[in-house]
Design brief:
Blueprint: E1 3-9, E2 14-20, E3 32-34, E4 54-56, E5 79-81, H1 92-102, E6 108-109, E7 112-113
Parallel strand pairs: 3-4, 4-5, 5-6
Antiparallel strand pairs: 1-2, 6-7
């Protein structure tokens, strides 16, 4: 069973929680998550975070865009930052098109919105 490291930053301290894939339902009401600069390889623990609106996963180890299938149930997700993961590949236009097809409700991908060539 895989574990997802969750690192929470506050002005005075930092702590990490390891969330097992079977515990994802406990984060149902998470609205914003900053998981950049970790070693996350799977998005499956986030599938139960149905209230999630913004997800920052920059510079992780997500191997494939097929991981995005775990985010499809997140109908409120509007912002996703996935840049600098192995899944982004070498063709930025193909990457963006694939992400948009999988998650059509996104308004911002990798810090670029609709007016910045998103579509």
């Amino acid at each position: 069973m895989g574990l997802l490291p969750l690192i929470f930053y506050c002005p005075t301290f930092c702590f990490t929680i390891y969330l097992s894939c079977t515990e994802s339902f406990e984060m149902m009401f998470l609205l914003f998550s900053l998981f950049s600069l970790n070693s996350i390889t799977s998005l499956s623990p986030l599938a139960g975070c149905l209230s999630l609106c913004e997800l920052y996963l920059r510079k992780n180890m997500i191997p494939s865009l097929s991981e995005l299938s775990h985010l499809r149930p997140l109908t409120r997700l509007r912002v996703l930052w996935l840049a600098e993961n192995p899944c982004c590949g070498s063709d930025p236009s193909q990457y963006r098109l694939t992400v948009l097809r999988c998650l059509p409700r996104l308004q911002k991908l990798d810090n670029q919105g609709e007016r910045s060539g998103f579509l």
